[in-house]
Design goal:
The protein is of the alpha/beta class and 268 residues long. The chain has ten helices and ten strands. Helix 2 packs across helix 3 and helix 7 crosses helix 8. It starts with a strand and ends with a helix.
Length: 268
Amino acid sequence: MTHFVLSNGIQIPAIGFGTWQIPDGEQAYRSVLTALDVGYRHIDTALSYGNERSVGRAIRDSGLRREDIFITTKLPAEIKGYQETLDTFNRSLDNLGVDYIDLYLIHAPKPWNVEGDGMEYMPQNIETWKAFEELYKKGKIRAIGVSNFRPPHLDVLLKEVEIVPMVNQILLHPNHIPKDNIKYCRDRNILIEAYSPLATGKIFDTPRLTTIAEKYNKTVAQLCIRWSYQNGFLPLPKSVTPARIKENFNIFDFTITDEDMQQIGQVE
């Protein structure tokens, strides 16, 4: 299976290329171009990453049809409100050089530089989501979702809105498994996307994963990305090294046993 199916029936490629922390300019451009060349068809960016223009240029120069590439971007966490959302969405369209977005996410329930759990921002997130719903109904976005939302945030949102988020993009890897959030989203048919599936490189220092990866003649990176995929999470690995970009995509030619899946990281 190379795609997951969202609650609205839209197919989303089952592995995405993450662009967080890739600087705008030649590096972002070349990385995305390489990812598309090796087979990725899902590119994940955000306005706050500052690299949307380079991502868009790579997509245009790839030679692929727009409809064959699934583009995700995000509303910055500090931007809340109905009109503010509509205005900011148009900035992303302009940056990417496209006339629609495949998946648009609220980047976080609160601004990053604010203490607390962000619950005080939920009224503004509700207004933000209503703008998402309008853009979705107008066909400017094919799917809508959130990022970094936990069950209490989702509870408040779901009580007030018409459309349930189709995606929740969260930090998730074998050494960080937020079981309560996973169960909440699964129970409501919200697809979980796993950002930093390699724990920004820290995962390579985990001895048990090295041992299991050797058993499959795979790298630790491939093992962790495959673990995410087999659990029904959509992994978003990131790299700027062409060989690793290719390696991270090649996870469809082996299957991890149930026993090893538990040893890698027990989800349930």
